[in-house]
Amino acid sequence: MLSTAALLANDAPAQLLPARELMAFTLASHILLVPFGVALPFITLLMHHRALRRNNPVALTLARRWSAVMAVQFAIGIVTGTVLSFEFGLLWPGMMGRWGDVFGLGFGVEAWAFFLEAVLIAIYLYGWRRLKPWTHFWLAVPLPLAALMGAFGIIAANSWMNTPQGFSLDAQGKPVHVDVRQAVFTPIFGPEYWHFVVAMLLTAGYVVAGVYAVGWLRGRRDRYHRLGFTVPFTVAAILTPVQFMLGDSAARAVFHKQPIKFAAMEIVWKTDTHVPEYMFGRLHPDGTISGGLKIPQLDSVLAGFSTKTKVTGLSSVAASDRPTATQATIAHWAFDIMVTIGSALILLALWYAWSWWRHRDNPGSRWFYRCAAIAGIACLVTVECGWITTEVGRQPWIVYHHMRVSEAVTSTGAGALWAMFGIVMAVYVAVFGAFLAVVLKMRTRWRIADEGSAAVHAELPPEADTPYGPRSEPEPSAAGAPPAGGSDHTPGGAS
């Protein structure tokens, strides 16, 4: 997986490369939606609660509009997530056939969470004008919990692939005596799960806030844009230092449980103490490193809080049991990009905190809002880098130390897989294009409604009305019949 630039062995099956590329593309595409599926329900309900507690119509409008975006994103996630589910069985039948009974519970949990989330989103959208305010809110409270349950299932499956346990092997090497609890709660599950969940909340917060930061830069300084920026950005800013500590904990868990992956992440060639840290740089097949910034002894300090900490090197295992030099460099760069962006976000969060401490207000600098607008995109980059680090660093194993990727791949011909790859790319371009078009259409509709265009008010239901306020009565037409697009619409016509 995710081995776009990896060097394949000469005896690798011909279908391995297209299978990897197809899985990499679909996973990299789907994961861009995951932060919104996991975290946007929480941020939306946070705004919804603020609206009800403070009787704030602006917050209510924001919550309603975010719920519409949440529904569209969920619909797109259905497509990309379903494709991924099929690909596990179609592209990697060796793994699913042999190990599915051991770690398959995670996929089952994710499926149940998916259906529950679909039902809860439907209830939430339906309830905007049909339920009492607090009843509507409390019925939606399980929605973020369902999203967290879905993340639980996926991370349980992935953490098992990284640190497999909860089974014994019979004489034929097949897993028997499965212990479901151990298979789910593997040694690396906790650090990976919480690191992932906080990353999703942080990313969604910065992305949503970035939309309103752009509006601020374009001169929209009203209460709507201020509140739309402040709530999600505050969530993200609070979680940024927490995420930095969780990331450090996750990296240290990798050091203890997957030492060869850690060696790839830090491009450590020989097992030794007083190991230097390289920021970026390139590892060569002979173990030399070119480029990058070398910081003496820092890698040992980061791994075990002492310069005497021994760090396992890639050369400690056979070449067939470790990532190639190219794969190690990919994992290393992905890890360093993630850490660099995380460090920059801490500075941005401190800037925000300083302004609130000194002035009880958002920073007024345009540079702050420029950085805030970029932060969302940067977070999406870190999400991609996190999965690249996880998957490429585990190579050549699909199940760590138990099954290689080449042993799990399908027997379907390479030509058919390349054709499938082309079809999936075309479908994804169309799907993401439709998603962008719908979101932009909603944005335009909301902006026009906020500007109070008379022409729009004549054609559309009144977006400016709060969901729980009285509906505007349509003016009767000359014939005594209500005009087209009367008041019996979902809130704002967007949900």
UniProtKB/TrEMBL annotation:
<feature type="region of interest" description="Disordered">
    <location>
        <begin position="457"/>
        <end position="495"/>
    </location>
</feature>
<keyword id="KW-0249">Electron transport</keyword>
<keyword id="KW-0408">Iron</keyword>
<keyword id="KW-0479">Metal-binding</keyword>
<protein>
    <submittedName>
        <fullName>Cytochrome ubiquinol oxidase subunit I</fullName>
    </submittedName>
</protein>
<keyword id="KW-0472">Membrane</keyword>
<feature type="transmembrane region" description="Helical">
    <location>
        <begin position="193"/>
        <end position="215"/>
    </location>
</feature>
<dbReference type="Pfam" id="PF01654">
    <property type="entry name" value="Cyt_bd_oxida_I"/>
</dbReference>
<feature type="transmembrane region" description="Helical">
    <location>
        <begin position="330"/>
        <end position="355"/>
    </location>
</feature>
<keyword id="KW-0813">Transport</keyword>
<feature type="transmembrane region" description="Helical">
    <location>
        <begin position="416"/>
        <end position="440"/>
    </location>
</feature>
<comment type="similarity">
    <text>Belongs to the cytochrome ubiquinol oxidase subunit 1 family.</text>
</comment>
<feature type="transmembrane region" description="Helical">
    <location>
        <begin position="227"/>
        <end position="246"/>
    </location>
</feature>
<keyword id="KW-0349">Heme</keyword>
<keyword id="KW-1133">Transmembrane helix</keyword>
<feature type="transmembrane region" description="Helical">
    <location>
        <begin position="68"/>
        <end position="90"/>
    </location>
</feature>
<feature type="transmembrane region" description="Helical">
    <location>
        <begin position="24"/>
        <end position="47"/>
    </location>
</feature>
<dbReference type="InterPro" id="IPR002585">
    <property type="entry name" value="Cyt-d_ubiquinol_oxidase_su_1"/>
</dbReference>
<keyword id="KW-0812">Transmembrane</keyword>
<feature type="transmembrane region" description="Helical">
    <location>
        <begin position="102"/>
        <end position="125"/>
    </location>
</feature>
<feature type="compositionally biased region" description="Low complexity">
    <location>
        <begin position="475"/>
        <end position="487"/>
    </location>
</feature>
<feature type="transmembrane region" description="Helical">
    <location>
        <begin position="367"/>
        <end position="389"/>
    </location>
</feature>
<keyword id="KW-1003">Cell membrane</keyword>
<feature type="transmembrane region" description="Helical">
    <location>
        <begin position="137"/>
        <end position="160"/>
    </location>
</feature>
